[in-house]
Amino acid sequence: MENIYVGLDIGTTKVCAIVASLNENNEINILGIGRSKSEGLTRGVITHINKTIESIKAAIHEAEEQSGLKLDSVVAGIAGDHVQCLQTRGVVAISGKDQIITEADEKRLIDDTKKVALPSDRRIIHVIPQEYIVDGQDGVIEPVGMSGVRLEGTVHIITGLISATQNIMRCVQSAGVNVSDIVLEPIASSDAVLNEEEKEVGVVLIDIGGGTTDVAVFVDRTIRHTAVIGIAGKKVTDDIRHVLGILTDQAEHLKIEHGHAHRSSVIDDEPIMIPGIGGRTPLSIDKKMLSNIIQARMEEILKLAAVEIKRSGYQKHLFAGAVLTGGGSLVKGTADLAREILGMPVKIGIPSGFHGGLLREIENPMYATGVGLVMHAIKHRQTAAHSVKEEPKKMDTKFVTVLKRMKDMFNEL
After folding, report:
1. Cα–Cα distance for residue pair 170/148, rounded to 1 Å
2. First to last CA, the chain
3. Cβ-count burial 94-131 (b if 16+ within 10 Å, e if not)
4. Is the pTM of this model over 0.70?
5. Of 171, 173, 176, nearest to 40 (Cα)?
6. Pairwise CA distance, residues 286 & 194, whole Å
7. Taking CA 183 as the corner, what is the angle to CA 65 and CA 129, rounded to the nearest 5 degrees?
8. For residue 343, what are the CA distances in angstroms to 229, 235, 239, 261, 336?
9. What is the secondary structure of 113-140 as a DSSP string?
10. CA 357, CA 127: separation in Å to the nearest integer?
11. Ramachandran region of residue 380, left (φ > 0), alpha (ψ -120 to 50) or beta?
12. Which of 8, 245, 282, 326 lies in the 20 to 30 Å Cα band around 164?
């Protein structure tokens, strides 16, 4: 469907489908949101095919009903602690006419960087250019059109298990829709909640989902480090359930409605009453006790994120601080705790940049990945359309002569 884009976030605790359109002014309208409970994933990886298919079907059906459209293709997210990243370099010689670097040369360079030894069970998900070097001159952002005889480049390669990718494809297709692309979830989330200024001065995105916590470091408008941590919001819920001996739904309700990740910020310490199980006496929960349970696990998550920030080598370059997003960031006091542990400015990231439709509904950190997948789909289609535009068949002879003279003048400088 032309100008209709669908993002499908297949998470550990929820499956979310977001439908959007792009109008003639390139403004994004949110047409539909479909949500369903996810029961077939563990730490971001599909572990039960049939349950996952049913969850995807339910989310797609709700999104179709809300948008009034029949969906046939989605951009799906991928996460899980199987995701790994590495840096690699490549080099190619420029031998074309006038030794002007072309898009074909850039593609040859990217292909050269992919020649890395990977285990047979892994595949490359993304190749993200970091820096280009033309004839020894580094810091080049866009080499196409420049003159040179040698083009080098450093890229950030993200890999994942082949089986994880195949299982996502299989589940989505079994639910009745096709997969147009698979995108790493922290990259998608960054498109939804980070702006270009933050990416330029240096920022880290920490997306606390249900099963995984995704970390992405940006400096100079480029992603420099990615990591997926296999601990997130569901672990917090499990801790509450085990310590207090209550049901999962009760633990989730306590976390969302009364939970606090920063114990010292709890002012109102009134007890919380929850129904007893099987007709037993109602249970009284102390707010500070609940906060102790939540803070312990949230500290672990944030300290693991801090380790990844340090591992990136860009810890001292993150002048915009950290942006927290995902459903796990909605627990009260999470930003305060993050400021203490990370030692940098922290804010909660909310999806933005939309013109119409379900604006209020989408402005929630839990939808960051789904919205980001939509924005990735839009950017990808626009880039593809731009690259296949038909070029003029023949330039005017006088214009060609003037262009050649100008080129010769620049070559002499």
Report:
1. 45
2. 50
3. beeeeeebeeebbeebbebbeeeeeeeebeebbebbbe
4. yes
5. 171
6. 37
7. 145
8. 20, 24, 26, 16, 10
9. HT-----TTEEEEEEEEEEEEETTEEEE
10. 34
11. alpha
12. 326
Residues 234-253: tens digit of each pLDDT: 999 999 999 998 999 999 99
Given a contact cutoff of 8 angstroms between Cβ atoms, the answer to whether 304 and 247 are in contact is no
Where along the chain do its domains lie?
A: 84-161, 196-352+359-363
What CATH number is given for 84-161 in this structure? 3.30.1490.110
Average pLDDT score over the chain: 88
Same fold, 84-161 and 196-352+359-363: no
Return the structure tokens found at 398: 């006088």
Max Cα-Cα span within the chain: 92
Q: Per-residue DSSP letters for 327-358? A: GGGGSBTHHHHHHHHH-S-EEE-------EES
> Residue 65, Cβ neighbours under 10 Å: how many?
11
- Would you say residue 43 has pLDDT above 60? yes
**Token pair 């919205």 in the structure block, residue:** 371
CATH domain 196-352+359-363 topology: Nucleotidyltransferase; domain 5 (3.30.420)
Question: What's the CA gap between 234 and 37, in Å, rounded?
Answer: 13
What is the per-residue pLDDT for 271? 84
